[in-house]
Write a structure and sequence with these properties.
With 373 residues, the chain is of the alpha/beta class. The strands form 2 sheets. It has a 10-stranded mixed sheet. It has a two-stranded antiparallel sheet with strand order 2-3. β11, α14 and β12 form a beta-alpha-beta unit.
């Protein structure tokens, strides 16, 4: 009778660790002409829905009118027909341009933008999505001129279920979708998110060499403050901001994205490329500079963040200024600003946060100081 062999658990664990290390080293050594996705823990991860990245209006109509089975069948029948670019497509191209610059300066760095396609589509629809990405990766303007590629390697296809639960697992810094309810879910989970809207009939000429991102201030970068105006008066708000100009505002839902942009900007500055940095940021706010602008700028300073251009409009329409800036995306919490931006050709993203929104639970709002005299 054969003797049974005893196994040393420590030796087994050491052997498995050695095998894993060898396997990882093997995959890391594989060569490819395509840039590798950065490690998620170091990357700035942008999760984009399929309807934001691609124009899927016709496909969406089939889904609504004929149901999911015919929708999936239609997508499979058109596997090799590339989807047309959607509202977030120019932004993603601009992000790839920034990555090309970072890889030139820091070949081994993982501090890059990483795009995740986050969709509740069925996995079978993924064939057309992948083919579309590969199509644009092979001929896009940026690929030809800047030798960078539209590469999206990370996908999340949830087959009809909400993908929001996966955002944290993918270490998402920003989520862009055309589904407003899912955007609200993401914000409730503490993730920067916005609903994307295509520009109107006017089409702005976006930069191929510089990523331009414009932000509103209150309820976007900063905490909500409109409650003071609504419950008291504009003069009370001005007095409050002057009194507390040295007290930093609390952060808003999209502050972390500006922070991530600033981190990547500083990598270009460190190589003496401040003047040619391919990232430019804008603050476009309805605030008045003299009456309530100082606190905003001091708050950014206290956070250690720079904004390249600050535009205080004192209530004037934002659309004409945005048309001049031509950002790849503009974040605002008020739909009338979104509509005004869209009409003049700006790609806008609505941040549903603040007292005027459907979602306002737990939002930090400031109250005017009580009169103790």
């Amino acid at each position: 009778m054969a003797e049974s062999k005893t196994t040393d658990p420590a030796a087994t664990e050491a052997g498995e660790e050695k095998d894993w290390t060898a396997t990882k080293a093997f995959f890391d050594s594989l060569k490819t002409n395509q840039p590798r996705p950065p490690k998620p823990q170091y990357a700035v991860t942008i999760a984009v829905s399929s309807r934001s990245l691609f124009n899927m209006v016709a496909e969406g109509k089939i889904y609504k009118e004929d149901g999911v089975e015919k929708y999936v069948a239609y997508q499979q029948e058109h596997d090799n027909e590339p989807l047309m670019p959607g509202v977030a497509f120019p932004l993603v191209e601009a992000l790839m341009n920034v990555n090309a610059g970072l890889r030139r300066l820091y070949p081994d760095s993982d501090e890059l933008f990483d795009i995740v396609l986050m969709t509740n589509n069925h996995a079978q629809v993924g064939v057309r999505l992948i083919n579309s990405i590969n199509h644009y990766g092979s001929w896009s303007t940026l690929s030809a001129i800047l030798q960078c590629y539209l590469t999206i390697e990370r996908f999340c296809m949830t087959g009809g279920e909400s993908p929001i639960g996966y955002l944290k697992a993918y270490m998402t810094n920003l989520y862009l979708s055309k589904d407003g309810e899912q955007v609200i879910e993401a914000i409730e989970e503490g993730i920067a998110a916005a609903t994307t809207f295509a520009s109107g009939d006017v089409e702005n000429q976006l930069s191929d060499t510089q990523l331009k991102v414009a932000f509103d201030g209150d309820a976007v970068l900063f905490s909500e403050s409109a409650i003071i105006v609504k419950q008291h008066s504009l003069d009370t708000f001005f007095e409050h901001e002057t009194e507390f100009e040295n007290k930093p505002r609390a952060q808003g839902p999209v502050k972390c994205f500006l922070e991530a942009l600033g981190m990547l900007q500083r990598k270009f500055y460190a190589k003496n490329e401040r003047m040619t940095c391919p990232i430019r940021t804008y603050l476009v706010t309805s605030r008045s500079a003299a009456s309530s602008g100082v606190r905003v700028l001091k708050t950014l300073r206290s956070w250690g963040l720079e904004i390249d251009e600050a535009l205080f409009l004192a209530g004037a329409p934002k659309g004409p200024l945005l048309q001049k800036i031509q950002p790849h995306i503009f974040f605002d919490d008020q739909m009338f600003h979104i509509e005004g931006a869209k009409e003049l050709g700006t790609i806008a993203a609505h941040v549903p946060y603040g007292i005027g929104q459907k979602y306002h639970k737990g939002i930090f709002t400031e109250q005017p100081a009580k009169d103790t005299t």
